[in-house]
Write a structure and sequence with these properties.
Layout (H helix, E strand, L loop, with lengths): L1 H14 L6 E6 L5 H17 L3 E4 L5 H12 L7 E4 L2 H9 L12 H13 L10 E14 H7 L9 H13 L5 E2 L6 H14 L1 H9 L9 H14 L13 H9 L5 E5 L2 H8 L11 E4 L14 E10 L5 H10 L2 H9 L4 E2 L11 H11 L4 E3 L1 H4 L1 H16 L5 H15 L1
Parallel strand pairs: 1-2, 1-3, 5-6, 8-10
Antiparallel strand pairs: 3-8, 4-6, 4-7, 4-8, 4-9
Helix pairs in contact: 8-10, 8-17, 10-18, 11-12, 17-18
């Protein structure tokens, strides 16, 4: 009888329907192995609590992500959730109808968690909320204290543009590569042009040019930005082969102690270690952050910063389960783990309170005190104009275009987009 009862129970078990799972594809660009492990761990915790949801975490490298995303979003393989830097690129995605509005699905608690800035960053001009902010970032001038000492360069002497150029020449004279740059990927070069525009034109000048007012990006301040960039490029400050170097190459070169400076986002703190030969990078006591040099007569506020307010967007076919996953991923407890390991500065309220990394703390203070936190120009201006900004920046780094030509090309791209 026991055997008959057991067989009956097994038969019922086989007949019972298997719980259906909703699959959530979250496309990310995270490349640091330890950070990927953390993301996988958070996903495992979520799935243990929500057995009816399966989270998949496909990866695309930064450049491949930018190149393939538009096609992906229009295909049957579109991710439910994907990384975004916001800005004009996001606005175009919303206008193209490839995103899902989530303002009626995202909880009030989740909205409060990212604050007004986090909600507005992913609210499109049509008034709909399509995503959730995750982190804030700043482009800073990382420097190697040991190489500065070897070249006899005082970091304080680099605070003005004239002093900065003199310091670059001193590194050249000492046989030290002054600056690492990944010009092959172009966007690293655009940080130089953008930071010069932030100094010279300021917020009002940039926003007026983006609207196509007056001379737009062909105006005096933008031509000057190109001229200053060329002043630097003509000193040949970059590493050998910089035009063929990717971001990872330049990051690794700096992490290996083979260049004195690297103008890059705060994420490079971890990436320079991961890209270095020994995976250790520059010790914290030998690493520093310089203020980007001031320019006499510039219209920008000295506190102005350049960086991002990153997060995720939901594609048009994303399920409610995708929103539930991101609410969990973005909560204070999970985001505090990213802050503790200095991967980025979370926007979730309270998540960064325990952050101890001195560089991340300094950057968070910079952004908090900024008169204007300018979004990466290649994102703020949309893919078409932003692509031109990246193109001309790489050419300016290689001294293969005039400042006037560069400015006119951006103006033409803006005019075509209006």
């Amino acid at each position: 009888m026991k055997r008959i009862a057991l067989a009956a129970m097994l038969g019922l078990a086989l007949m019972a329907p298997v719980q259906a799972q909703t699959v959530v594809k979250h496309l990310h660009i995270t490349s640091i192995p330890a950070e990927v492990e953390l993301m996988n761990s958070i996903a495992a915790d979520f799935m243990a609590q929500n057995p009816d949801i399966k989270v998949e975490l496909p990866f695309l490298e930064n450049e491949a992500f930018k190149a393939k995303l538009t096609t992906l979003l229009q295909s049957a393989d579109a991710p439910d959730v994907f990384h975004s830097w916001g800005g004009g690129v996001f606005y175009e995605q919303a206008a193209a109808g490839v995103l899902r509005p989530i303002e009626d699905v995202l909880s009030d608690e989740a909205k409060a968690n990212v604050g007004t800035a986090g909600v507005s960053a992913f609210t499109a001009p049509d008034g709909h909320l399509y995503g959730v902010a995750r982190d804030v970032s700043e482009v800073v001038l990382w420097y190697n204290k040991t190489l500065f000492e070897q070249a006899g360069v005082d970091p304080a002497s680099m605070e003005t543009w004239e002093g900065f150029l003199a310091g670059v020449q001193a590194f050249k004279d000492a046989g030290i590569t002054p600056i690492a740059i990944g010009a092959k990927d172009k966007w690293p070069a655009h940080f130089w042009w953008s930071k010069l525009v932030v100094r010279l034109a300021g917020q009002e000048g940039f926003e007026a040019a983006a609207r196509g007012e007056g001379d737009g990006f062909a105006g005096e301040d933008f031509v000057k930005a190109g001229e200053y960039f060329l002043q630097l490029s003509e000193l040949e400050p970059w590493q050998e082969g910089f035009l063929a170097a990717s971001y990872g190459d330049a990051s690794g070169l700096f992490g290996d102690g083979k260049a004195a400076m690297h103008l890059m986002g705060d994420w490079d703190y971890g990436a320079m270690k991961d890209n270095s030969a020994n995976k250790q990078g520059i010790p914290d006591d030998q690493l520093g952050i310089l203020p980007f040099p001031t320019i006499e007569g510039g219209k920008g506020d000295p506190t102005d910063t350049l960086g991002g307010l990153g997060g995720v967007l939901f594609s048009k076919n994303a399920s409610d389960a995708a929103v539930k996953w991101i609410e969990f991923f973005n909560n204070k407890e999970n985001q505090a783990k990213y802050a503790a390991d200095a991967y980025y500065i979370p926007i979730a309220k309270g998540a960064a309170d325990g952050m101890t990394n001195p560089f991340k703390v300094q950057i968070a203070q910079n952004i908090g005190n900024a008169h204007w936190h300018a979004l990466f120009f290649d994102q703020a201006l949309g893919p078409n104009v932003g692509g031109v900004v990246n193109d001309i920046s790489a050419e300016l780094a290689g001294s293969s275009i005039s400042a006037e030509e560069a400015a006119e090309m951006i103006k033409e791209a803006v005019d075509d987009s209006l």
